[in-house]
Write a structure and sequence with these properties.
This protein is α/β, with parallel strands linked by helices. It is built from seven helices and six strands, in the order βββααααβββααα.
Length: 186
């Protein structure tokens, strides 16, 4: 039998969700036989858990995963504090990169979102994800550089990438780390 947690929530249909290697059955109402629903999807669940285990093992080579989860859980109790501190760190880096790339930005916002790490608008506003407060310093630098660079080059074209690769010798490694962070924090 697969261990799972039943969550009753306002959703249209029931569905199975896996997060942090835990299985949840999310459903709009009490179910007559929830165990059966889980059993029916047994192969899919086990495959998914296996995949996740593998990713975590890989991530563990670069990132202290338990420490990351602990810090994230604790510090996110004070979101405003995290935001404030991150904004300061990012402002310093953005100023530096803006000078170097000869661009100007308008303002920096820290967003609590689960999709993007950062974005740059046509008006020169830069947005960054609050979760950047928990990533490796070099990964943070890469994201800030990336968004500031967008003020010069909008698209992810060859030139854009060549700037990044020039600035960060371990660019590929940082991208891989970022993918792990997406998996662990988003
Ligand atoms: Zn981009």
């Amino acid at each position: 039998m697969i261990n799972y947690e039943l969550v009753i929530k306002k959703v249209r249909y029931h569905r199975i969700m896996i997060k942090n290697r835990k299985v949840f059955l999310v459903t709009p109402k009490k179910l007559r036989d929830p165990d059966r629903l889980i059993e029916q999807r047994r192969d899919w669940i086990l495959a998914k858990l296996g995949q996740m285990e593998k990713v975590e093992q890989e991530a563990g080579k670069m990132i202290d995963v338990p420490l990351l989860r602990k810090e994230f859980g604790e510090r996110m109790q004070d979101r405003d504090g995290v935001k404030k501190e991150l904004k300061q760190r990012i402002s310093g880096l953005a100023g530096l990169y803006a000078d170097r790339l000869d661009v100007e930005y308008n303002r920096i916002s820290i967003k609590d979102q689960r999709s993007k790490w950062g974005s740059a608008s046509m008006k020169g506003n830069l947005n960054f994800n609050i979760r950047l407060a928990f990533v490796h310093e070099d990964v943070l630098r890469m994201i800030v550089f990336h968004e500031v660079l967008h003020l010069r080059i909008m698209r992810h074209n060859r030139e854009f990438k060549s700037y990044l690769k020039q600035e960060f010798v371990n660019y590929k490694e940082l991208c891989r780390m970022l993918r792990y962070y997406s998996y662990l924090l988003m």
